[in-house]
Amino acid sequence: MALLEVENLQTHFRAPDGINRAVDGVNFHVNAGETVAIVGESGCGKSVTAMSILRLIPEPPGKIAGSIRFNGRDLLKCSDREMRAIRGNEISMIFQEPMTSLNPVLTVGRQIGETLRLHQGMSAQQAEARAVEMLKLVGIPEPERRVREYPHQLSGGMRQRVMIAIALACNPKLLIADEPTTALDVTIQAQILDLMRDLKRTVGAAIVIITHDLGVVAEVAERVIVMYAGRKVEEASVEKLFRNPRHPYTQGLLGSMPKLGSSLTGEETRLQEIPGLVPSLKRKLEGCVFASRCSHTTDLCRKVAPALEEKADGHIAACHYAMKEAVAA
Amino acid sequence: MSQPILEVNDLKKHFPIRAGFFGGVTGHVYAVDGVSFSIEKGETLSLVGESGCGKSTVGKAILRLFDITDGQVVLDGTRIDDMPAGTLRPMRRRMQVVFQDPFSSLNPRMRVRDILAEPIRNFGLAKDAADIERRVAELMDRVRLPRDAVNRWPHEFSGGQRQRICIARALAADPDLIICDEAVSALDVSVKAQIVNLLQDLQKELGLAMLFISHDLAIVEHMTHRVAVMYLGKIVEVAPKRQLFAAPKHPYTEALLSAVPVPEPGAARERIILKGDVPSPIRPPKGCRFHTRCPYAFDRCKQDEPQLRQTEDGHFAACHLHDLPAAENPLAGARGAAVIAHH
């Protein structure tokens, strides 16, 4: 059984001018110890999916439907009290903005210790000792001194390390990282990605990483889910997705990214564009969600929404025209 | 060679830090500390570096959005950094800017027509109202927006379309030089490609010179002619793009290239992960500013500040390693291919 099973997740928001279908029928699973990336552009519903798992969506105006089974338990049926016991303990989250996600008036030691005292009933001394250990684990020099410092005394990269320390303090089974490196500089991003890879080996938690950066996906993920306009459009192992993307949207995304080293081949190329704009999520979309921007669109695409089909072993795509390989029975 | 459109000589910008009740100056932020480069007509020079390295300050100093501490800015042979405001005005027309955030850089209370007409009117570029209207329509065509969109308000457009309006506004003054300060950084991948292509097309069509300030090395490599890498207020390396990406001559450039995640799973590449953070520009390290994080630093780097020197044709780097015999210089070979993934 998978650690996390998300079935037909629908997160809708009531707005004055209609219902915003931010996430509209998404299925996926995460196995224990696995790293899964959810990738897509702004507004595709990737962050809302992550927030829905932890039920961090304010209801109303939001409304989450479907089922989210974690270790066999449906999180959508849990009481608020049960959810609080899960958040930060069995499932924890790292947010994008390390500057605003830390409390400026508490020492970082207090903030790491808070989850430990709450979930694991540690005393203040035990929690501080463990906080020092956690800071050491995430590679902060002089942890005994840093543990008494306040967030403003740390740089952006160090704050993100503290966020990771908080998230990992209770040995979660699942870690959700929402754009964990987007706000950081490249050299610092490289440090944090390196740290996440190391920690995965030592801690063994499953990771769901939400990002718009395909480079980051290629570096850390094992399996990738591509989202577009609130739906999953493609899913595959990271090698398969990058070698052989099957959905036209994924192909477009990969083609529109300039590759480092492009000048070394000597040929001047033009970036591939995806014409048009993401459709509004306020209208019920008919047919394929990508039909308005796809270069292969036919009448079939405009009328009938393609189902997610297994096009090759473990490679799923929602496109009428994506090539299908003979799947070994 | 003809005269460069822009020359920057030993530019310095130090921001005073004021503290205490009387606001006494207690120190300086050495945001830009001696930067020199030039841009030819029709050329794109990219300024890359991490946040706080001073790249945006250089852009703003050229535009004279503030006065500089020291140095010279020369636009097409005329020194503009000490020009009085009155004589500067016609020069301002010749350099325009596109900022990062298309949401805050357009006035929400002006229609697109008025946004584009303002620079035309301000610099007296049109004969009459009909001429303005004609120029505005041309600008809309240039940036591939429908002509009838001139009656709409900024909030009716998406981020990518707004950035097109910002570009059209920059073109309205008929400039020789456009400074793009992270102009595509806030956009989504697919929209980013549209704007990058547009900027490249416009440069070819209009023969514009461009200063492209960015932290995104893949985009820079795609669209620039030459690259200048900044670290803590100084340029550490300048080179034509192919030379820089194939064989970086400064350890910082090398580390920067190796840190960019590439969309190629399992790519065989050498990784250089820099330790620690960028030091504060209030108290930059003595000697080479990069020595605190440099994997190759030796004793001389802590004392002696390296100067930008030519290592090969058109390729300048500020690093003591190039004084060592080639056998001991880790940057002597073609390092780019090793730290960038193979294709």
Automatic annotation (TrEMBL), chain A:
GO molecular function annotation: ATP binding; ATP hydrolysis activity
Membrane topology listed for this record: Peripheral membrane protein
Domain of life: Bacteria
Leader sequence segment: none
Transmembrane segments: none
Subcellular location, record wording: Cell inner membrane
GO CC annotations, alphabetized: plasma membrane
Name of protein: ABC transporter ATP-binding protein
Organism: Neoroseomonas eburnea
Automatic annotation (TrEMBL), chain B:
Gene3D superfamilies from the UniProt entry: P-loop containing nucleotide triphosphate hydrolases
Keywords, sorted A to Z: ATP-binding, Nucleotide-binding, Transport
A single Gene Ontology CC term: plasma membrane
Listed SUPFAM superfamilies: P-loop containing nucleoside triphosphate hydrolases (SSF52540)
Membrane topology: Peripheral membrane protein
SMART domains per the UniProt record, alphabetical: AAA (SM00382)
Molecular function in Gene Ontology: ATP binding; ATP hydrolysis activity
Subcellular location per the Swiss-Prot or TrEMBL entry: Cell inner membrane
Membrane-spanning ranges: none
KW ATP-binding (keyword) present: yes
Positions of the ABC transporter domain: 6-257
Biological process, per Gene Ontology: peptide transport; transmembrane transport
Cited PANTHER family: D,D-DIPEPTIDE TRANSPORT ATP-BINDING PROTEIN DDPF-RELATED (PTHR43776:SF7), TRANSPORT ATP-BINDING PROTEIN (PTHR43776)
Similarity remark: Belongs to the ABC transporter superfamily.
Name listed for the protein in its UniProt record: ATP-binding cassette domain-containing protein
